[in-house]
Amino acid sequence: MKIVWSPQAADDLVENNKYIARENPEAAIAIVNNIYESRNRIKEFPSRGRVVPEIGQKDIREIFCGSYRIIYQIEAKRILILTIRHMKQKLTKDNL
Asked: Is 61 inside a domain boundary?
C-alpha cells in the first residue's frame, strides 16, 4: 500500500521538529527518524494501530512513537497520514 502525507501531517512534522530543535537538535533528528520508521511499520501492517478513541471510526487509527501519536486513515489503495500530535495535544474530529 502507498503512504501519503496530508498537508496537515507534513506541517505537523516540520513544526514539531522546529520546536524540538530549538532546545535539542539531536533529539529532533532522532524523533523524525523514529516517525519515519513508524511510517514504515504502518505500511507493512496498517491494521496494527488502534482505533483513535476520540474519533471512533475503524478506518482511522493511530500508533505511538515516543510522545507522539501518528494518526492515519486506511483507504482502499493508500494509507493517508492525517496528523502527528504530541500526546498532550487535544484531538477532536474538528482539528483532525
From this structure: yes
CATH (domain of 51): 3.30.2310.20
pTM beyond 0.85, yes or no: yes
| Count of domains for the chain | 1
- pLDDT per residue, tens digit, the chain (96 aa), is 899 999 999 999 999 999 999 999 999 999 999 999 999 999 999 999 999 999 999 999 999 999 999 999 999 999 999 999 999 998 888 777
Domain of 40?
Answer: 2-86
Q: Are 82 and 96 in contact (CB under 8 A)?
A: yes
